[in-house]
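FAQ: What does a multi-protein file look like?

Like this. Sequence, then tokens, then the next protein.
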Amino acid sequence: MASVCSSIKGLPNRFIYGTTKAAVIGLTKSVAADYVAHGIRCNAICPGTVDTPSLADRINANPDPDAARKAFIARQPMGRLARAEEIAPLVVFLASDEARFVTGQAYAADGGITI
């Protein structure tokens, strides 16, 4: 699991996080290259901001959680946060035989942040 906040897009005040997720994309491509001849695939999913318990903890750690949540939503072109169940179908697809010819890719599921 990578993120659109990576080598795909820089986001303010997220340079350490973005660096680590860019490394995940690089690792994905390297693993895919090393193992493609063995029939082993490796892909990365790069979500935008997903409404998870971890995000709720980050939001609630702010002095004004309501303002923090609104700020996260404001940077989403679709005007809302993603739900985990909106990312899960991509996980299922990439794990399925339908994706047997897909490897070394970084898939953005970001609600339009990168457009």
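And here is the next protein:
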Amino acid sequence: MVEILVPIALFATIFGIVFIAISAKNKERLALIEKGLDASIFKHEGQTHWRYGALKIGLLAIGIGIGLVIANILDVNGIMDEDVAYFAMIFIFGGLGLLSYYKLMGKIKPEKED
């Protein structure tokens, strides 16, 4: 019985945090509208478009996948210890994926939104 309470409490906590964050953001924007202010202060100058977030997540996932494959090769061949190989390769190749995203975003000029 106790074993089932831990996952339920975990998901309830995550849901509660997300719910509070979204409702606080909504209340803040409604307060701005009531005062007659523009909500454009939440948009940062030079901020990339939301659709590039999928590119970042994709490159990170590819990097982590390559890191897992390389770590498995290093572990099976006895070149590195299992724990060290997996953690190191995940972080190294995940970081390389994020660096490649940064380089790609430097080449893409942000488009102006009206």
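Q: Is there any per-entry metadata?
A: Some entries carry free-text notes. For the entry above: The helical segments are 2-35, 52-76, 82-107.
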